[in-house]
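>> received
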Amino acid sequence: MSMNDMLRKMAVRLERKQDALFSYDVEKQKKYIAGLGDPKDEIERSYFQYKCQMQFNGRFLTFLLNVVSFPVAMLYLAKYGKNSTTGQVEKKDLVFFRDGKPANILPKSLQEQYRKIESDPAEGIQLTKTDQAFLRRIIRRYPFSWQFILKCLIKIGRYSYAISHYKPEAVAVCAEYSFTSSVLTAYCRQQKIRHIDVMHGEKMYYMRDSFFTFDACYVWDSYYADILASMKADKDQFIIEVPSSLCFDEAFTKTDQFDYTYYLGAETGEVLQKIADTLQKLSEHGKRISLRPHPRYSDMDMIKKLFAFANIEDTKSVSIEQSLMQTGCVVSLYSTVLSQALYNDVAIAIDDISNPKNYKKLKELGYICLRKEHQLLSEIMEEL
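>> returned
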């Protein structure tokens, strides 16, 4: 396993453990964001976003992360500081770091503007003398924030490799949640390259997504732009456009193979048991039930045990489009899939049964689907 993969897995575990979206008070977030003030440049935007995210960790874990990050950063500098790409340049107009997300998440207007697009760029890290000079500016400003420095170093090395290899006019990512995003905007601007962000998941009031700036940030609805701007993301960057990943084309036809499909997130333990109990009652009343596990978070052994009565989708062989088109109603507490369903005229139900505390929190967080036409899972159960 590479160091990058190891760091990514650690980040996923930490995010799952925190559940900060529901556990961290919204008013406290608003107060903290206001207390930071207005950033003076892109680097400070990134640093403020980093500060917001470290609030979720607490002081001790933040200190520990910074201590551990220092030697790792030194190793990266020693290993990649003399790297430079070799070989023939494969000229592309746009490099899209989609990181496992579907290629059709890229808005059509960008596909038309940039004809030669690399959606699976070659991976590598290099740190040229120019890159190291850029990093030294960050280190001088924040000499004790080595978690911040390390992440910036890794991302800059990745961008540097791709830019050398493809010579693009623009770089696109799905990474507004990353505190490195604004630093990378400054890095790209220094090289006369546009830095573009593409929305890929639900947005609520969650200061993980605060302060960021890109040359353009594509969101699905003006509502999302308003929420993000309220967390001091640059209000002038937003462009409203719904991609093909959200609004499917004629290639997908509705089959209604199942009455209800539940889309899991990171649920475990008692919450997962409640979901199973509720869906089993629906099944006992003759409803055809399907379940889509979360590709990163779901424990498949547990899922197969609890949901033996239901169809369990294979997320590797059944696309999200196929999944949506074969169900009459999409069920979840909150998920991007609920928005996808609405854009494709599939009914949605919000789960207010398995975790009522988190359901109540959704209003406070400003969840968009509560403002759209929907049923509650409790209403469906009452109809039985």
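>> The chain has a mean pLDDT of 93.
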